[in-house]
Amino acid sequence: MLSSGDACARFASAVRDMAVGVDVHCHINGCVRDDTLLELASARGLGEEARALVLDAPRDLMSCFEIFKLIHEVCTTREAVRRIAREVVMDFAADGALYVELRTTPKNAPERGVTKDSYVEAVLDGVEDACGVGGGDGTGKITARVILSIDRGRDDTAAKINETIELALRNRHRGVVGIDLSGDPKAGSWDMYEPALQRARDAGLGIAVHCGEVANTEDEQRQIISWAPDRLGHCVFTVRDAACYDALRASHIPVELCLTSNVFTKSNESYASHHFKILRRDAVPLCICTDDTWVFRTTLSRECAIAHTHFGLSLEDIRSIMADAVRFSFVETPVKTKLLARIQGDTAS
Ligand code: IMP
Ligand code: ZN
């Protein structure tokens, strides 16, 4: 008899074989390969520390953020950033993805000769290594685009926030398509970010905002939803507050759902009680994403299998959710059309 683990693995394998995966919410430094992280950490004498970071039990969001300190410490050289960006894209391709929208926070590491400019250049070089010029045109095995993140914990002045917007605008020709607001959800306030995000939106960049990741942020959630970003990440606590949830439903903003991330960080008690179920019941636009494959020990095909196991999604449901994810993505329209045709096969787009 098949165990539920076997059934889950078989579904994940079938998802990989369909090769229709689309992930629009994954942070590059949360998706580093085990081997790469250990190699880079060992070269800096931090191998043991890196090994100890592999999480074998759920942790809250704030302790997960601690992990990024070491990852950033060992991964922020131009060579490493380029390599990691390339490997992340290749790993998604091996997992059956045909489009990935990677996000990352531009970093300065003067002691290693890294500026925010050269960091972004290295990311785009890595994406180009994996996908070809500009991250590909929708016809290759995998196409990728990049979103630059504003880190709520570190980007604490208008100058730093604006620098990220400028960097994104300067690098559009190489495949930067949007801006993300992420990092410690308790740091900073929406008023600080809104003017810069508005400027980015006016200039044509897509905007994705982490929203409702922690409790007691209802006022901010309502501000964010009424500003209407193109996509929202998580919305765990948005669903738990009637006024916030009403606003979300009325807005029709697509939500990027990261099942394992939310269960791992204990925002959701279990997969079975994940707000995926409520959003799907209420026909809120949604997509399935990984957030941080390394931190949360997952893959996109596994997330789809979890949605199958706990919410009864079929392979055709997955195909349809992936088509929606392309529609919600920030990639240029001609590429979107090609990707949609590939996902839908013979079905009309
Ligand atoms: P990076 O931007 O490529 O360095 O990816 C890691 C960064 O993404 C972290 O330092 C956080 O700022 C952000 N991040 C990753 N996962 C989450 C999350 O679940 N919530 C909010 N921010 C996150
Ligand atoms: Zn995230």
Descriptive overview:
The chain is of the alpha/beta class. The chain is 50% helix and 13% strand. It has 15 helices and 8 strands. The chain has an 8-stranded parallel sheet with strand order 1-2-3-4-5-6-7-8. Strand 6, helix 10 and strand 7 form a beta-alpha-beta unit. The N and C termini lie far apart (39 Å). It binds inosinic acid and zinc ion. Residues 27-30, 68, 72, 104-105, 149, 151, 182-183, 210, 213, 261, 291-292 line the site of inosinic acid.
Number of strands: 8
Classification by helices and strands: alpha/beta
Question: What is the CA-CA span between the terminal residues?
Answer: 39 Å
User: Helix coverage percent of residues?
Assistant: 40-55%
Order of helices and strands: HEHHHHEHEHEHEHEHEHHEHHH
Task: Jot down its keywords.
349 residues, alpha/beta, eight-stranded parallel sheet, 8 strands, 50% helix, binds inosinic acid, binds zinc ion
How does the SSE layout of this entry go?
Layout: H1 4-18, E1 21-27, H2 34-43, H3 47-53, H4 61-75, H5 78-94, E2 97-104, H6 116-131, E3 143-151, H7 158-170, E4 176-182, H8 190-202, E5 206-211, H9 218-227, E6 231-234, H10 242-251, E7 255-257, H11 259-264, H12 276-281, E8 286-288, H13 300-311, H14 315-328, H15 333-344
Parallel strand pairs: 1-2, 2-3, 3-4, 4-5, 5-6, 6-7, 7-8
Helix pairs in contact: 1-13, 2-3, 5-6, 7-8, 9-10, 14-15
The structure holds inosinic acid (IMP) and zinc ion.
